Amino acid sequence: MSVTTAAFLEAVALTECSVDRVNRAFLAVPQPVPWPKAYGGDLVAQSAAAAIRTVSDDRVLHSLHGTFLRGVETEEPVQYEVEDLRDGRGYSTRHIRGYQHGRLAFMSTASFHVPEQFVALGPTMPSVPHPESLPSSAEVLESETGEAAEYWSHGRSFDMRHVPGPVYIDIDGGRVPHQAVWVKAFTQLPDDATIHRLAIAYVCDYTILEPILRVLGLPWSSPGLVTASLDHAMWFHSSARADQWLLYAQECAGISEGRGLGIGRFFTQAGALVATVAQEGMIRPGQT
User: Fold this and answer.
1) How far does CA 167 lie from the centroid of its chain?
2) What number does CATH give the domain 6-115+125-284?
3) What are the residue numbers of the active site?
4) pLDDT tens figures, 34-83
5) Can you give the residue ranges of every domain in the chain?
């Protein structure tokens, strides 16, 4: 089956609309998934894309802080209303609220910075196998059938290759509180740095809760398992192409009271730190 990045590109395609209560507003459509509510990365990337449309070209997105208030339906538009909080000489701040059917579903704050020449330091990238030596999700799931397996294999716009192994059907690699995922867009993306930054914001939500599921011994296919993103923070440290391999190193930072905190870092293949992600999620195991 041919693979494509169309789902991502369609997710971040915005249409400006009129609104009275804020500065500007945009419509975007969450993409189809084989479960009742839309993928959280749609909301993260769409809110970022809306904010980016309201700032001058001399500054780039450097952080996002968001809260998921309720799930949204796929293939139904979400209206993102952007409020200009501040435009300074070096930084700009925007507040974004996402509404579907008149109900607030997601809100975030985005910060932008005029880039400066400065020293770059970061943690050391973990030593892991080369991505081309690892099986793709489609190869891992080639004997599986059903909508979920098809979506994990071909429907997410990105090739994802796990170390030590995925957690789709069972816990491949043991119940350890860490993992890494090589990610790359299925096809080449436009030569636009903004699209690549949005792609990283989009893809980060797919696997950030997996170290929590891994250590709990809960593969995605566990009967009755329910997860939900609660809040999300992301910092961009440098630019990188999302259609070239990036290593997403992740760890479980804590689990309590039905919630888990995942921390992740994106690195280029050369070891440069690209972005840091923190996300708390609800974890509800099925009844046994």
Assistant:
1) 18
2) 2.40.160.210
3) 205, 229, 279
4) 998 999 999 999 999 999 999 999 999 999 999 999 999 999 999 999 99
5) 6-115+125-284
